[in-house]
Amino acid sequence: MPEILTNNIFFGIITTVAAFALGRLINRKTGLTILNPFLVAFLILMAMVLLLDIPLDHYMKGAAWLEQMLPVSIILLALPLYRQRGPLHFHKVAIIAGITAGVITNVVSTILLCRLFGLDDVLLRSLIPRSITTPLGMLMVESLSGVSSITMITIIVNGLFGVIFYTPIYTVFRIHHPIAQGVAMGTTSHAIGTGKALELGEVIGAMSGLAIVLTGLITVLSYPLINMILG
Amino acid sequence: MVKLFREILIVLLLLAAGLLLGRIIPFPSSLISMLLFLALLLSGVLKEEYFAGGLSDMVLKYLSVFFIPPSMRVLDSLALLEGVWPRILLVVLISNVLIMGVTGLTVQLLLKTEHHDA
Q1: In terms of domains, do A144 and A224 share one?
Q2: Which of B31, B96, B98 lies at the smallest CB-CB distance from A139?
Q3: Are residues A105 and A180 in the same domain?
Q4: pLDDT computed for residue B118 by the predictor
């Protein structure tokens, strides 16, 4: 690949947007939740960079501009949260307690399992913010001084996890109530899981959607405490 | 056109307010901006109609595109993952089963007590 084509500010932006558009197209044509546009775009770009031997610095020259949207994307999350205050109103206690229990389970089990399997502190810090929506995950991993790219990838893994494993988990834990199923999905698998939840039913979908920003918010607000625990 | 400018202006002012407040409150400034935005929506100072179907909703719809570049940076951190990624996957799998189970069970249990009260 001639350097003049890749070593400029347009290359990263154009290829990222094009890969994402292709990802959306593939997602819609196949109708498969698991072929998430973000995942498809990531795989396409990875293949491109590796196969054509393009230096990451070249790609990042333009792509870094897209990263500047992080603060704006976080502010805008107030909108979906505000819009979902209706469904939250009726079962406020159960939903918020459930999400808080999920967030605590995430932090405690991730710390214990990382220690058990001998994963170092940097990895542990990168794995904690993985069950939340990408903007808040990005913010949190910076506050925890983890590696943001590892967090981003485990966020995708968490999204796919919910989509693939929800049936056995609902069965084993005997989670039958649609509100409980939805909140469990959104708390574990954020927007990707919510895509699946919407297919399962209106209540499950709405509850999963509601859980996305709430889980993110509760997780992010706990970062000073986690920093204290990890020392 | 007025709507578009109003939207952009509000978001920029929120960003600025977050940066200023961030000097006093020890929290990430964008998070402060978001909570401020939420408070202004809930109190009715800002109307949801200002944003519905506008630029904000478009950004929200295509949100994940902005997080592809930071994910690509994993190419710089491959050394960190070498040899340990199967264990990472295992940690994530076990922990996720617990998160999903505990969350669902807690909600279900509390919903049941709610019904008994009624």
Answers
A1: yes
A2: B31
A3: yes
A4: 47
